[in-house]
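Quick illustration, no need to memorize.
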Amino acid sequence: MRKITLLGGSNSIHKNGMYKFLNHNTELTSLALGASSSLQNLYEVIRNSEVIRQSDLIISESNVNDFHNYNLIGTTLNVIEKNIERLYRRLATCGIKVIVVLLPLQTKKFNDADNINLLHIKYIKEFSLNYIDMHAYYKENGLSELLYFDNLDHPLDGVMYQLAESIVNIIDNIRLPSKNKDYTSYSVFKFSENFDTKIKQNSLFCEAVFEVNSQYKLPSELINKKIVGIHAWSDGNSVVKIQDSEAIWARGTNSEVQFHDLNQQLIIKNGTYICRGQDSECTENSIRYPEKVTTETHNPKVIALFLIDKDSGDKQDIQGNSTSYNQCLDFLLIEKEILTQYQQCKRSMGKFKKFISAHRGNLIIELLFKVKNYIR
């Protein structure tokens, strides 16, 4: 059975979508997490490097979450671009087949869908990764309006299920990335290895969480490392704060498992500590914070810090060629034809019914109704 690693957002978590096919037909490692950006995909690659080395294929999707982080909480395009670059640079070094899925961005009230997708395409090609561009495919084949539901860019589960099947069917044809190197050094600081933690779990996730109910100085071995993200899972509305004499970063968390990017640069010093913050201290916004169901506040619960030990990722060794596998979406053209015929028939039947209603007194029409009732 094929071993698949799935990186992404809520589209990769939906139980009847891509996850369902892969879970039933492959040996799946799902590392997807909703409301998190490309940086969360990279964090999981670093955190689960041993598992990923055993994979036959990595499937990654993150453009929808980058789009929402930009529009909903104001993550800057510069931060989004840097995170995309970091993710694809590292994926190109794993020695594993990779296919990136660019999902259709359709939420009309949001901005810069094309610009964000162009950033993904730029670095997919720079690091010679394979990809499926659903966004472009929808536009080119007249699917954007037909399959538009204004549902925060979640394609139909049935579409995602069939896409997963199509991808698995072409694994043997997908080529390995060129031999790239990533000179950036990353690490994950797990609070479970340094503080007392408790296991928190639901049907999808199981994590060791540390409740921040006081000030806790970060260990000295982290000094000079740069914090780029924090993995948190609180019980409700809470604010996690990281501070030293020169800088402060604070962000709201909620009852969802979420990975939070840092827009600002925060380098750990001798006096850097983590603590519970106040809502008024937030320096950045968070998706779905505060939760509307309650005004109660809690202590934040954190899982890990994502760190850059040495940021020197500007060198690129070998640049090859990217391959588009948009043919994996050709099943949509068959479904488009079926849907189009259905809509045409429905419109035609609507006109026929209007004609019948307008001519109910006609003898022939009356005869048709009598025959219909007799057959019943």
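The domain at 3-179 is CATH 3.40.50.1110 (Rossmann fold).
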